[in-house]
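[SOLVED] Need 3D model of a two-part complex

Original post:
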Amino acid sequence: TQLLEQSPQFLSIQEGENLTVYCNSSSVFSSLQWYRQEPGEGPVLLVTVVTGGEVKKLKRLTFQFGDARKDSSLHITAAQPGDTGLYLCAGHPINTNAGKSTFGDGTTLTVKP
Amino acid sequence: DTAVSQTPKYLVTQMGNDKSIKCEQNLGHDTMYWYKQDSKKFLKIMFSYNNKELIINETVPNRFSPKSPDKAHLNLHINSLELGDSAVYFCASSRQDLSYNEQFFGPGTRLTVL
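Solution:
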């Protein structure tokens, strides 16, 4: 059973469209991170959310942490080809070993010019 | 200046061989990790070390043995390689702020077992 489930698994859109990626769990997390991974590279940290209901913005990317700290979303406005990549959410459940993050199964985004 | 580096980038070897992957971080982090990413892109933690001490050891065959000579290095040795070991292996590091656990990843080592 996957602790963090991401949806959709694959997303292919045209440049300029908006999109939202979801990361859901039945567990409560002390924090949640979003990473982007490009082909042939390692994941790169985009943001960390900590407080329930928190919203963070990174240029055209908006990240939200659910009020109960069980889920998160990533919204991209006016997507560009450079946004193409694998988006991973990762969280530290409150009742797990210190330092152990669980990763979601990823959302592969393709933005066509 | 690469923050987390791994060598080699690519590793192609025969079944049954023994191989090692090296990882170094220059971020001054206390915690280092090894992850395995399969063909479906799922990233699964294998090991975690904090100040050279093993703190996480997931269900990984004992053919895999991590070694941390100091807190800036975490190497992975694999004995008797099997076809199912083919994957991309990522090293990562983080500060000891364990509730945040923001990780910095290396570029990965693509292991192919023939």
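Edit: Chain A has a mean pLDDT of 93.
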